[in-house]
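Minutes, project check-in

Agenda point 3 was the complex the collaborators sent over. CS summarized: two entities, 722 residues total, and the question is how they sit relative to each other. Sequences were read into the notes so everyone works from the same version.
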Amino acid sequence: MTSTPTDTRRAHPSGRRHLPDAPLLAAAEGRRPRHRPVWFMRQAGRSLPEYRELRATTGMLESCFNPDLVCEITLQPVRRHRVDAAILFSDIVVPLKAAGVDLDIVAGVGPVIAHPVRTAADVRALPRLVPEQVTPISDAVRLLVDELDQTPLIGFAGAPFTLASYLVEGGPSRNHEHTKALMHGEPETWHALLGALADTTIAFLQAQLAAGVDAIQLFDSWAGALTEADYREFVMPHSERVFAEVANAGVPRIHFGVGTGELLGAMGEAGADVVGVDWRVPLDVAVGRVGPGKALQGNLDPATLFAGWDVVEREVGKVLAAADRALEAGAIGHIFNLGHGVPPDTDPEVLTRVVDLVHRS
Amino acid sequence: MTSTPTDTRRAHPSGRRHLPDAPLLAAAEGRRPRHRPVWFMRQAGRSLPEYRELRATTGMLESCFNPDLVCEITLQPVRRHRVDAAILFSDIVVPLKAAGVDLDIVAGVGPVIAHPVRTAADVRALPRLVPEQVTPISDAVRLLVDELDQTPLIGFAGAPFTLASYLVEGGPSRNHEHTKALMHGEPETWHALLGALADTTIAFLQAQLAAGVDAIQLFDSWAGALTEADYREFVMPHSERVFAEVANAGVPRIHFGVGTGELLGAMGEAGADVVGVDWRVPLDVAVGRVGPGKALQGNLDPATLFAGWDVVEREVGKVLAAADRALEAGAIGHIFNLGHGVPPDTDPEVLTRVVDLVHRS
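CS then shared the predicted structure for the full assembly.
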């Protein structure tokens, strides 16, 4: 590989790309971005006709382990919307599948685990991921880094609690009853489970970092079901270890969960550089919970996208205004995003217009 | 009907029972209860084998319009658990069904509306409830008041926003996209819809009050999907009117929604005497959001009920301790409850033990 003064790829001492002008990285690191960065959770997905076409004949898990498909699907929203970040197309359960857990992703249901994990013996039998098991994902990251030019690539992983909820419940759950019963009723088994899952998450993220991702986002999708006290006792130490173990990569670490208004401070303390905020908490309120010195990401209500452009424009304006107040109150940066994933039936034209609107702000 | 000095039924000037010693009413009104009152949302339901037996051959809506069944189902948890309140067995959509909206409750799905309400014409065509349409429910209340001795009966109604979400979406919804699109995109139509639904809710509650309920609870089950700004602009005026229109009954008005941590202050301001709190916000934090002068209801995480008695006992203790701090901080009373409804597969023995534990506290 040749490197010239204008070719910034792989120029960083770590072997990682050096992207000093990327607005996403500037905002995450407290530098002044040339425009407000914006990307969307689930931007690579069913809202895009080109995605639906590609996925028509290929199952979700199969897609996630096909480097060319992962690369193409990850690039689609970057090409279409000109967002300021690509996020690796993947699924929360990919590292579990790779490690050998018997599971499938069932359309209309979500992940289904063949043998739920509910006892100490189940936890002992749980395989831990070794990096070689996610070679297709590492390959996809390498393909993407070569294709993405100056756009940063965000690595993707589920946090230990959310992985645990899938494993213990056997699939998606509304009330997380088995999970919380294990957590409260058998704390030793619980901590052993979350420790094992933290190992897997660390291995998954380190594989992505070694292949060149420019930031990571740790999704604790279900953490909002917990009280802050339970989060701090049973979950935070494990998420903290994940963040600590990837700190030496020197890339921004983003943390997000939906419905986590009560947990924003703790989720920041766990080691995030950027705290993602769902739409329920205005960013100028969120900064008070997170404290100064971190960047915030969010938080347009995704349902707004269906209310017509005038409403979208007004609501984006409100988010930007709240973000500006958060910046005055000590947040070091703002990355515009939705407060949750892109709904599948979103008109992608609206997303493209939101990107333009945020960039012009 | 005979009345003796010891028969307090119907002794109140309003014709309503006078229950000065009922712990629930004392706590709600800022008087000192002889023990801490406790009841459970969805206490009359699938957790009870006697309920499952009664309902085996009768559909949900059919049950809700059968006075004898409503009476029996409402009494079951009072007999079994010795809770401090009965709550009228009903469903959010009962007044809509009674008014003539074409809907059904489908097992495993929830309410399904034949023709979703999405236009100004749909709203104009929406029937409003007249009290005669809920005669079976009024009859059930009268049966219950005669059966309940000193235990208060809480009336039941859904708040306008939650009713609107069912009508606009056509059934239960995760993201309330159509609802929010109507709310933001066509505010006049929205307010007309919520006005009509407030009329129906008021008529439904007034029918229950006229028949003798001792308190009411207004469930805004889905309000937690809203930002506080949207709640205050699009929802609160209508809930406020509901509370105002039933104020002259002089009974405690309880307000609850799940995931409403950001809305607790506004939901109190809407006119509630008692604010129900989901499990995510400790009661000593909730009091700061609600402000002094109101009672709080809640808020054991229902998932705790599956974690074994030692855990239940410890977690109940934490709720009681937080409630005591809330009382010191200005809450005028505490009504123990779960932070959400009783999960269907709860062991009812555990609920009975929780009642005893709270009473001994």
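Noted in discussion: Chain B touches chain A through 38 residues (CB under 8 Å).
Follow-up: revisit at the next meeting once the mutant set is ready.
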